[in-house]
Amino acid sequence: MIKVGIVGGTGYTGVELLRLLAAHPSIELFVITSRAEAGIAVADIFPNLRGHIALTFTAPDSAAAIAMLAACDLVFFATPNGIAMTQARELLAAGVRLIDLAADFRLKDVDVWQHWYNMQHACPELLPEAVYGLPEVNRAAIRAARLVANPGCYPTAVQLGLLPLIEQGVVDIKHLIANAVSGISGAGRKAEVAALFSERAENFRAYGVPGHRHLPEIMQGLAQAAGQDVGLTFVPHYLPVVRGIHATLYGVVNDKHLDLQEIYEKRYANEPFVDVLPAGAYPETRSVKGANTCRLAVHRPQCGDTVVVLSVIDNLVKGAAGQAVQNMNIMFNLDETAGLNAIALLP
Amino acid sequence: MIKVGIVGGTGYTGVELLRLLAAHPSIELFVITSRAEAGIAVADIFPNLRGHIALTFTAPDSAAAIAMLAACDLVFFATPNGIAMTQARELLAAGVRLIDLAADFRLKDVDVWQHWYNMQHACPELLPEAVYGLPEVNRAAIRAARLVANPGCYPTAVQLGLLPLIEQGVVDIKHLIANAVSGISGAGRKAEVAALFSERAENFRAYGVPGHRHLPEIMQGLAQAAGQDVGLTFVPHYLPVVRGIHATLYGVVNDKHLDLQEIYEKRYANEPFVDVLPAGAYPETRSVKGANTCRLAVHRPQCGDTVVVLSVIDNLVKGAAGQAVQNMNIMFNLDETAGLNAIALLP
Amino acid sequence: MIKVGIVGGTGYTGVELLRLLAAHPSIELFVITSRAEAGIAVADIFPNLRGHIALTFTAPDSAAAIAMLAACDLVFFATPNGIAMTQARELLAAGVRLIDLAADFRLKDVDVWQHWYNMQHACPELLPEAVYGLPEVNRAAIRAARLVANPGCYPTAVQLGLLPLIEQGVVDIKHLIANAVSGISGAGRKAEVAALFSERAENFRAYGVPGHRHLPEIMQGLAQAAGQDVGLTFVPHYLPVVRGIHATLYGVVNDKHLDLQEIYEKRYANEPFVDVLPAGAYPETRSVKGANTCRLAVHRPQCGDTVVVLSVIDNLVKGAAGQAVQNMNIMFNLDETAGLNAIALLP
Amino acid sequence: MIKVGIVGGTGYTGVELLRLLAAHPSIELFVITSRAEAGIAVADIFPNLRGHIALTFTAPDSAAAIAMLAACDLVFFATPNGIAMTQARELLAAGVRLIDLAADFRLKDVDVWQHWYNMQHACPELLPEAVYGLPEVNRAAIRAARLVANPGCYPTAVQLGLLPLIEQGVVDIKHLIANAVSGISGAGRKAEVAALFSERAENFRAYGVPGHRHLPEIMQGLAQAAGQDVGLTFVPHYLPVVRGIHATLYGVVNDKHLDLQEIYEKRYANEPFVDVLPAGAYPETRSVKGANTCRLAVHRPQCGDTVVVLSVIDNLVKGAAGQAVQNMNIMFNLDETAGLNAIALLP
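^ inputs. structure came back:
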């Protein structure tokens, strides 16, 4: 059994990680920390876990927590941005492998990171070693990694949707458009007026047009695939559902006679968690609710030169906790799908 | 034109009051205060008001605000509980009439108030004078009042639903049940985890079973109608909609041959804002969304001795701002329906 | 492996049954019929099942379907009311065991059934043999049954909530109240104006007050526990969520000094799918979303003589498909929780 | 008073038209027809209208209905596509002016119309005379029109968003993108599985990518502004709200130094129902819920050459019934805003 710790398990990413790990056949959930909820049973905060998880939150600074984390094989950080980087060095030194579900290790360029996240990076020397945890791109590196940066939710949906076009060099990479919508759980379990039910229900709006933090992450991934910088307009929107990301991606192809369907099917033929729908289909977010799947469909309206790719994930699963478990499975040579076979809840 | 001021206009009750007053033919909106938003245009916070309200929030402690409030004919308090009572004495002394949309003046018994609201009352000497602003009960007193305590949302729906039975003495008043659900806007525009979209959407639960603050208010109103204390079990629930209260009320009648439909129709025959539906009907919350109407229906299932009354209001209109405007109309001898003729938005 | 057939798998109960059976370790899904979708892959109708279920719908009247159903160990009917009764005799004769998720075999009194369901019963001779599939009441009989009538969703939530009080004889059984709300998936996947998104979203209303079909089913179960007829007022409401039933149950206890918490905890101590929450808690529907659990809490407000029981289930799981799988597990001597360990999706 | 008739008032567009006309100061609602609901009071179908509209539905083929419609000054068709064209000739001959809220007269090219709507046009000779009822483009022609084709909901939001760029010639018209989402009331009040609450809630998907019927309508309008054909990719999506359209529009500008904000503000300076938000703002759908307003914002992310325009309307108001009333006001020389001053419901 792999001994697993979680730092900061009281957000939505945390509870989802607990849900997945509770059902995982090869791990032992050893310790979970929370400053605010120290001493309280996990299942008292998240009643869906009653009968499944007996653990109690431990204060993160306690000697017990520090010792238990250091005794883990793997520690997940389900913390806000800026926390994992302050503890990574020490835990790695203790021989613990790390998966950060926040953004601390996602960008290779420390200046870009510091610009977008507006803080000093605490351990820039670890950035070169950190592996960006998108298994469909970096599987081999993930297997060997000590430190995995779990991708953001939008970046997962957008990159999986655009990579086949970019890798094949069939699209104008200077004018890509990613129009994306996200369920409100993506905003986290923080007390904020903007995320209140009465602000988001029966309402829809864009945000972050001048620049969302996921933009540099997406551009880094696409540029790596393209071998050069790409031009991307990314417009996220608040979607009044709890879970789900839908990205509608637009590009201009340089050859109208390409079999785009074939390109996508080939690219993801061996991927257990990417499902290319038949031509003409429309992926819907509920088809992946609670599942670690990304479903994609490719369209070329009116047989023109504009390709439209539709990509859906559950932001808390393939967009966060599920992808983290997938990365863990890879890192520890488990079946990549272990603990991730749940079928999406529909309706 | 009646010169109107609003203290604390940044909550949902406040914006609804602004929406209604902006369309009112006989008032001048003179000043609105907010500590947090001082200096900001009202329409910058609430974009639905763009083009309709040009006012800017004034800091409540500023000399300007104090002078302007004192120059008003009427001041609405759309503040949290405990604010109006600290300013009422001074404004009344200046000749201003007051409507408090919070709870400061709703209970006649200061000890009961202090127990349920867990604070010292700042002006208990005003409680005897304060008129409980339920026009269907207290119209004449409201007309003459200097100080009106606008009822709570649940109390409005429950009292309007139960009063005919109690006034006619046809129901067992020791075992009344009020099962009620409220849209989430009832929780206000405060940053709280419990009111997040991701906590309330696709979810339903009860709360406040041991005792909700609206319980003593309802019991005071029912006892007054009964001429004696009543026994009431009140269970509120969070309903995942923005607006709407639905109360399902149960009582045991002492005579199975009563024409309950007639009792209700007679009771509310002259009420402009209470609509008794035909026998067998089901009021739905959307039929009053944005409107100052309470719709009621009376059922006696299986011709038994249990009567079921269904009562719906929009918690922000008849349950708060609309009823406050209705009270204002009565206080200033305007047409009681002035500014309150909007038809509910359906769908 | 148990060979399983499903008649009528295109409703919400059907897709949920497929989701659960696809993950069940001890069954082989052998045949599924649908008139409307014959020849179409199950996963083309329900994309969440892509990659999990390869089966295609078979026309129910085809020789192939008839032969395959007769070759099953167990057939589930996920059909509208009135279908299972027309095929039960023949399948039972072929040695197949049956679980009907509709209402054909739920009531023991054929006249009562014909009154409420407004049709002639096709095989009244099977009613005495049919076992009402509420495992918490009838486990032993279910184990031996050839024909199980899976309970309705409201009846499951209401009976599990009220049975401890009735079995202990501590409540006035003449004036019980069940105020219940149901997610819209309970209305099924039928094209009806009343179930449109635009009719149900941001809306709430009661229905069926004169008499819902689940009323006689609940009263039959409660009467059996009481040893005499009970008086129950049952008011269902449409709740604008997809999944979830919440019942708020009211009764008058005859002894204020009873330890109600203990009564509930003892009653369900050995039940794998009934979770009695700590005193003072509020079960929420999302805590059972996708799970086969019923969560209960008992309150006695203001220490009076009225007890309030709160009961939640997922109408499609413990209220339908999950309970059917639980019954199957019992009938075939499998671990009762096999295939039913999924943790509810929260948020 | 203008004598007004409505053909087909039982859909969502119909009830919204009734809501607006009931509050209009200068019209008399004379007759409303419905085949399905003949003889039933309007307010029995739409309870929000109780106390506001006393009219009863008349059978459309009755002599009474025909005579009353012919006696109107104006008839609105709130019918499915293909109905207005069968009655237009006769009513026009009787001197009645017409506004069709469906699509029969929106396209100038009868072949294009017949291709997209898949039926024979019943009166192609009226197409040249019909005026496309977008007041911000065709105000003068509307004033003189006998026959107005009220625009579709998506076309209103998209055209108002893109017209300033196209009229000024500052954008590449060959690669425009309109990514739009619509509330489910846009699908109408028809019994269809696809529009069920349980299909749309907590779900999001695109549709109509190969070609939605609103595409030729938008392209006709944009081409007229451009003086040449335009290239547009239009992707609509189902948004799980009742009301609201949000269009996110993308184009490549040919000059990065343009003051786009000024272009928009100038274009709509005198328009009572188009509100250009300050630079950097995000229009939200709830800011126009129930109101006849289109709110717009213009962004140029990262100061690049891609412009992003955000446009919101209420699909039932500015996207249908409200715009129809606006057209009526223009046609009859009333104040253009008469009956259309309601403030959007927020929250």
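Chain C has two domains: 2-129, 153-315. The first helix of chain C runs from residue 12 to 22.
thumbs up if we can close this ticket
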